[in-house]
Design a protein that fits this description.
heterodimer, A: alpha/beta, Aconitase, domain 4, B: alpha/beta, 15 helices, 19 strands, binds iron/sulfur cluster
Chain lengths: ~200, ~475
């Protein structure tokens, strides 16, 4: 996975709560056996009319936001299915960071394993970021994961929290599997104990 | 000193392989279910790195999401669906993983076949690249859905890096009233705590009402804990659990069985253990449930009316409600019972087990599906189908005008040919009423199997208690 260190980009407001994974990427796009190319189906129902043309009212279709790499969203973002196709679609489209008051658990895990930074902030902070993003002028944010800071174009700095291990992996683009395989002895020992205690 | 701990704590503690400074733990995974949608990229990853499947004996694969529920002797028409299933077959053959292929009688929805085969056992950790893996918690198994990167991680190492959930307990006291099912209980719980109410939590279900449920009922409850945002749902294993598991193909055999039971009996929350959050409800308050919106928390009772967004003080929620009602094509104030349907779907990992089939058949018996309604019954596995046929349920359904199909996910997520057309409305026993979930533009009302059958018969959402 790619490293996430610093990012300065346009933030698009998506003021919806409970944005579910079916909304992020509908099931009909899950038939692929690859990780790439899913950006074309991102937010498909919100983004396109039935005839395939762009829906003008959708934020990522508006000129000011079409290059957005950051999303500001409502509570419980990513709820629903465990499909990793959701972060793959976001990433493929170019979204690298999502800021919301809360995220669904599985989505949170899946995103960090693909190098997407999810920032959880109190609702009041989100409301402000959302308002700024909606104004367009202030839509650019700078994110510094190392310093755990978001800076708006007006210079206001917001601090955020993140799990230390997740941060370490994101900053270094680390693959969990390689790290775990270094613990092979411990896994072997565990399996040996299990074989004796639970022979069924 | 011995500290009183919860069932979840016990399961967690007994699976720690390693603990990092920040509290992240490497957790051992005892059972891994695989299906065709979320595994191809994981096998690809293994291949690229030259890695093997560490424990093929703890891994079981099945194709369920894309399989047709009609004639399986002909090739799957949809190219991509076929490729996905063929890819699973090839991956399992290459890596030595056991697979129930499409024409095996044991084939079915992964969350139905795991328990059915005795693959799911108390005291284990069980994962699958599917959010409804929470289902297996009905057995006192710490089970949860994972993404594809995690599938790859488990295949390669038989472990996962996890942080512990908080402990939550939902107690429903009292006896379950007539006409109320496990589905109504869990929908009522979700209505109360919301789809994010359980975020970061492992929920243990307790109280007489939950305890009195059969294994099928407990699976329905745990299945939908994910709709309350929780990662894990749990029932403490008891005699009901042991009776269900005895003699299943992958259950412990005689000799080991006794030792296993002895251990399983220790899997309860200690007296005096403290939960981070407790919810207590009374079974006698629970009515048949039905959803009106596009999130499982948009639920009400069958006797109620479609709620009015104007009554919602929170702006975000009000907007969401308006959007939901517009999508659902509903007017605030309409009686739920007056909502007409075009389709009924009885199936999915929530409600496709033998008891669900029986409950729906009881309502269908001697009645006819309303004109203009398409009613689908999709058993959860080939074995459920076979048993139902032995009991003559298939004939009851067919006589009443229901379609009797082959096992799979089917219209639960509409990846195969079974889907709603834009604007069509279904009474569905599945677990998600998200926009487009059962087909683009399709509208879903979540209900119990008996309620879905009742709606199919009358042509509109119906209080099943008036039909019995
Ligand atoms: S039946 Fe529905 S919810 Fe269950 S595994 Fe299949 S698609 Fe997922």
């Amino acid at each position: 996975m790619d490293k996430f260190d610093k990012l300065t980009a346009v933030a698009a407001p998506l003021p919806l709560i409970n944005v579910d994974t079916d909304m992020i990427i509908p099931a009909r796009f899950l038939k692929t056996i690859k990780r790439t190319g899913l950006g074309a189906g991102l937010f498909s129902t919100l983004r396109f009319n039935e005839d395939g043309s762009d829906r003008e009212d959708f934020v990522l279709n508006k000129p000011a936001y079409k290059d957005a790499e950051i999303l500001i969203a409502g509570e419980n973002f990513g709820c629903g299915s465990s499909r990793e196709h959701a972060p793959w679609a976001l990433l493929d489209y170019g979204i690298k960071c999502i800021i919301a008051p809360s995220f669904a658990d599985i989505f949170y895990n899946n995103s960090s394993k693909n190098g997407i930074l999810l920032v959880q902030l109190p609702k009041e902070e989100i409301d402000k970021l959302m308002e700024n993003a909606e104004r367009g002028a202030n839509a650019t944010l700078s994110i510094d994961l190392g310093a755990q800071e978001i800076t708006g174009s007006d210079g206001v700095v917001i601090k955020f929290e993140i799990n230390k291990f997740k941060k370490h992996c994101l900053l270094n683009g680390l693959d969990d599997i390689g790290l775990t395989m270094q613990k092979d002895d411990k896994i072997n020992n565990y399996e040996e104990r299990l074989r004796i205690a639970q022979p069924w | 000193m011995n500290k009183a701990i919860t069932l979840y704590d016990k399961l967690w503690n007994s699976h720690i392989v390693d603990e990092q400074e920040d509290g992240t733990c490497l957790i051992y995974i005892d059972r891994h279910l695989i299906h065709e949608v979320t595994s191809p990229q994981a096998f690809d990853g293994l291949r690229k790195e030259g890695r093997n499947v560490r424990r093929t004996d703890l891994t079981l694969a099945v194709a369920d999401h894309n399989v047709p529920t009609t004639d399986r002797s002909v090739p799957i028409a949809d190219n991509e669906s076929r490729i996905q299933i063929e890819t699973l077959e090839k991956n399992c053959a290459d890596f030595g993983v056991e697979l129930y292929s499409m024409n095996d009688i044991r084939q079915g929805i992964c969350h139905v076949i795991g328990p059915e085969q005795g693959f799911t056992l108390p005291g284990t950790t069980l994962v699958c690249g599917d959010s409804h893996t929470a289902t297996h918690g009905a057995f006192g198994s710490m089970s949860f859905g994972i993404g594809t990167s995690e599938v790859e991680h488990v295949l390669a190492t038989q472990t996962l890096l996890l942080t512990k959930c908080r402990n939550m307990r939902v107690t429903v006291n009292g006896a379950i009233p007539r006409g109320i099912t496990a589905k109504d209980l869990i929908l009522a719980v979700i209505g109360k705590i919301g789809t994010a109410g359980g975020t970061g939590a492992a929920i243990e279900f307790a109280g007489d009402a939950f305890k009195s449920l059969t294994m099928e009922g407990r699976m329905t409850v745990c299945n939908m804990t994910i709709e309350a945002g929780a990662r894990v749902g749990l029932f403490a294993p008891d005699e009901t659990t042991f009776t269900y598991l005895k003699g299943r193909p992958k259950s412990p055999k005689a000799g080991a069985w006794e030792t296993a039971i002895e251990y399983w009996k220790t899997l309860t929350t200690d007296e005096g253990a403290v939960f981070d959050e407790e919810i207590v409800m009374d079974a006698s308050d629970i009515q048949p449930q039905v959803t009106w919106g596009t999130s499982p928390e948009d639920v009400t009772t069958i006797g109620a009316r479609v709620p009015n967004p104007a009554d919602e003080p929170d702006e975000n929620r009000r907007n969401k409600m308006e959007r939901s009602l517009e999508y659902m094509g509903l007017e605030a104030g309409t009686l739920m019972e007056d909502i007409k349907i075009n389709a009924a779907f009885i199936g999915s990992c929530t409600n496709s087990r033998i008891e669900d089939m029986r409950a729906a058949a009881e309502i269908a018996k001697g009645r006819k599906v309303a004109v203009g309604v398409q009613a689908l019954v999709v058993p959860g596995s080939g074995l459920v189908k076979e048993l139902a046929e032995q009991e003559g349920l298939d004939q009851i359904f067919i006589d009443a005008g229901f379609e009797w199909r082959d096992a799979g996910c089917s219209m639960c997520l509409a990846m195969n040919a079974d889907k709603l057309k834009p604007g069509e409305r279904a009474a569905s026993t599945s677990n998600r009423n998200f926009e487009g979930r059962q087909g683009p533009g399709g509208r879903t009302h979540l209900v119990s199997p008996a309620m879905a059958a009742a709606a199919a018969i009358t042509g509109h959402l119906t209080d099943v208690r008036n039909l019995e």
